[in-house]
Structure formats: C-alpha cells, structure tokens
Design brief:
With about 150 residues, the chain is an alpha+beta fold. The chain has one domain: Alpha-Beta Plaits. Helix content is about 30%, strand content about 35%. It has a 5-stranded antiparallel sheet, with helices on one face. The chain starts with 9 loop residues before the first strand and ends in an 11-residue tail after the last strand.
C-alpha cells in the first residue's frame, strides 16, 4: 500500500462512465418497471453507491476513503440500445476517488445485468472509464472527447 501520510488533505472528485448494451425490448421493460426483480434503476443506483463505499475491501491496496458524496445516474439510449451509467464520488483526503467512481459504475452495470438476465442474456457491459477527476497533486483531468459530467452538476 502506498504511504500517503505526508500528502495534504484536499477536496477530491472523480466521475466515471460505462455502458450496458441491451435489446430494445429489454430497455422498454426497464422503463416500464415490468421486470420481475423490480426497479432496475433503483437497485443499480443503490448497488453502485454501496460498492463505492467498499472499494478498499474489493481492490487490493486501495485506501479506505471517507466519502462525502456518491451519486449514480442513468441515461437510456436508442442507438445503440442501452444504458449509459455515470457516477460521481467526492471526498476530502490524501488520495483520489477514481477507483470508487469506477467501481460504482461497474457494480451498477453488473446489477443491471443481474436484474435483466432472465429476459436478455446477450447484454454487454463495457466502456467503463474515468472521464473527470479533480484535486490532489496531479490536478484536474478531463478525458478528451467526453461530454462534461452531468451527475451532481
């Protein structure tokens, strides 16, 4: 584990995105809350937030963070048919929140898959990436070609 004890505490923020490709009829079932497991977005949002809080238990050598805010949002798309997931995690500390934002997106995507697998086993989880981070020694990062973050904006 990297020693971050000498680093100063700063406000830090990270935004990540990912995408779940699925069939148009699956998207319709999600929108109409017609799946037997219930509200896909509510379950995936909660799973993503809970996962962000437990990254240090999931990823070796990650420091536990005191997260001050965690959000997960969804946007359904028609072309390609699927759901874009965006997470924003904030903390004040000695290390960044990138892993927490990426994990939130990943677990939200896995939850969508789990909730929908009875009707669509062909779903694809992909394109999980960091799109923005601020704070710390390295400063601000914005992925080139990405739309600005929308969660918590």
């Amino acid at each position: 584990m990297v020693d971050v004890g000498a680093k100063g505490e700063t406000a830090r923020e990270a935004v990540a995105r990912g995408f779940v490709t699925l069939r148009p009829d699956t998207l319709r079932l999600i929108r109409n809350q017609a799946l037997s497991k219930g509200d896909v977005y509510a379950a995936a949002r909660l799973a993503g937030i809970l996962a962000a809080k437990r990254v240090h238990e999931l990823v070796p050598l990650c420091h536990p963070l005191l997260i001050t805010a965690a959000e997960v949002a969804f946007r359904a798309t028609r072309r390609p048919p699927g759901i874009e997931i965006e997470s924003r995690v904030k903390t004040t500390g000695r290390t960044g929140a990138e892993m927490e934002a990426l994990t939130a997106v990943s677990v939200a995507a896995l939850t969508i898959y789990d909730m929908c697998k009875a009707v669509d086993k062909g779903m694809v989880i992909g394109d999980v990436r960091l799109v923005y981070k601020a704070g710390g020694r390295s400063g601000t990062y914005r992925r080139v070609g990405e739309a600005p973050p929308t969660v918590g904006a």
